[in-house]
Request: fold
Amino acid sequence: MEILFADMPAIAEEEISEALRFCAEQVERNLPEFTDKFQKAYSEGGFYQPTENRDWTTGFWTGEIWLSYEYRRESDAAAAERLKAAGEVQIDSFLHRIDNKIEVDHHDMGFLYSPSCVAGYKLTGSKKGREAAIKAADQLIARFHPVGAFIQAWGPMDAPENHRLIIDCLLNLPLLYWASEETGDAKYRDIAEKHIHTAIKNVIREDYSTWHTFFFDMETGAPDHGATCQGYRDGSAWARGQAWGIYGSALAYKYTKRAEYIDIFKNVAQYYLAHLPKDMVPFWDLEFTDGDDQPRDSSSASIAACGMLEMAKYMEPADAEIYRKYARQMLKSVYDGYAVKDAKESNGLVLHSTYSNHSPYNTCNHCGVDECNIWGDYFYMEALTRLHKDWELYW
Ligand code: GLY
Reply:
């Protein structure tokens, strides 16, 4: 395996501590405005506005609260209590959301309910968190197509234009494994497993770049074609999609223990690394590199780093060391060049992320370009937490 970026510095222990301290303080500063409300999916001019619990992204803000709680309870019981109280208010909101089926007709139940309700349950024993997350798992499995063996991402289930999965869904599946463990009912895990195998077989191309979305024939379930939504064009590799593939294949291995997923992970990660610019933080699509006048997606680097740190747990020591080093190098770059250092410049954690950048060849709405994105903030904090201690996953 070719070693890339050999001379890039890795984040040091004191930088991890300093970065985590700032993140926790920033989250605490935000609590008065963002306890009954949530941070929006993306900042505007560096500042998040408050929003109701309706988008697919609100669980990341609650996840930041729980990560801050974990950090603060090591040294400041009063701060930890304030964070816990805020996390509980948000769990109430998630229970209300799933009970009333508010904007839950999509596959993002894991993004919503793992970092909020599963986390709250694991950390504090929240019964409401457990109840909400199991209901969310039920909602997610209702989107499974037995013919084709996949969970449909978006929209009504009977429309051919929606008959597809997307690579991001690999992060929604740990909710199902957790639900099987909690309830003793294998149905959640069985569906997760089927989806994982279908997804990995189809969204990863021969050269280990990835499709964002993949369509199936409605009648036969046969794989039909790949297409992008948020990438630059069909056939390019959307930078966040590739990162979902890295973290997603690590989680696929964690839950299925299929040896081939280690190789998939290595190849998808290697493709990613080989298409990074000099500072290891990708442009929004891996088509672009140094010299291109395009926005970055700093969230992609943090997601990839989390995936590498997860996969390193299951690898041979020599390989594990390589991927831990890549993760620390990427985080050093995010910390030095992208992370917020002064609350006056932003109420988020990481700048220069891209949600959806419309191009002549893709189908997404244009929003959250070169801004903080709420999952970018969350995964930056998750990656730092993983380096700070032996962290029990919310996923
Ligand atoms: N899961 C949607 C996105 O990454 O933008």
Q: What stands out?
A: The mean pLDDT is 98. The chain is about 50% helix and 5% strand. Residues 77-99 form the longest helix (23 residues). Strands lie at 38-39, 50-51, 144-145, 150-151, 164-166, 213-216, 223-227, 353-356, 367-371.
